[in-house]
Amino acid sequence: MVIKVFLASSSGSTAIKKKQQDVVAFLEALKLDYTQLDIACNEENRMWMRQNVPEEKKPTNGIPLPPQIFNEEQYCGDYDTFFDAKEDNSVYAFLGLPPPPGSKEAVQADKEHIVQNGTHAAENPDDSQAQVEEEEEQEEEELRQLEEEEEAEAQEGEEDDLEETQEEEAE
After folding, report:
1. Which terminus of the chain, N or C, has fewer Cβ atoms within 10 Å?
2. CA angle centred on 112, ends 108 and 117, rounded to 5°
3. pLDDT for 57-83, tens place per residue?
4. What is the pLDDT of residues 107-129, one digit of tens each?
5. Handedness of CA 53, 55, 57, 60 (dihedral sign)
């Protein structure tokens, strides 16, 4: 799946340029595969973008402004919805992509017990969360055992020191 970002290379609006740069920079930072499609120099790109932005997402004048983001032919959103997704740590969901393991979005999805197909864990139990909890409990138990062993060793060391002192005093 390739993310398509429709941009205007020769926009006179500083705000549009900044928004375009923000989207592109963020996608690059995530190392996502994306394509920039220029609507200023390519009439086909401009027409495709305008035709594929859903009616309910178009501004009142009917002409969507760049940047507009698609996952292949699936409309993702404009800059404002992208920004909201970025703030909510849900960019992968916004783009229609599975979050990479260990990412904030993946952790958040695990916490909410949401399975990839959209059902809740109660409807479709996911053992991965239970496994994570079990591993955390096991790690905590191992830490407790280590602390107990260290404490026991420290007490033995104190007892040995006391015995040596008593033996020295006796001599």
Report:
1. C
2. 95
3. 998 888 999 999 999 999 999 999 999
4. 777 777 555 555 554 444 455 56
5. positive
Under a CB-based contact definition with an 8 Å cutoff, are residues 40 and 8 in contact?
Answer: yes
pTM above 0.90, yes or no: no
Beta strands in 22-73 (DSSP E): 34-38, 68-71
* 34 three-class SS: strand
* Confidence category of residue 131, pLDDT binned at 50, 70, 90: low
Residue 120 pairs with which residues in a beta bridge? 114
The C-alpha atoms of residue 6 and residue 39 are separated, in whole angstroms, by 6
Percent of the chain with pLDDT over 70: 80
DSSP string, 126-151: -HHHHHHHHHHHHHHHHHHHHHHHHH
What b/e string do you get for 126-154 counting C-beta neighbours within 10 Å, with b at 16 or more?
Answer: beeeeeeeeeeeeeeeeeeeeeeeeeeee
Residue 118 to residues 37, 104, 123, 155, 168: CA-CA distances in angstroms? 31, 18, 10, 55, 74
Let me know: does 41 contact 9? Beta carbons within 8 Å. yes
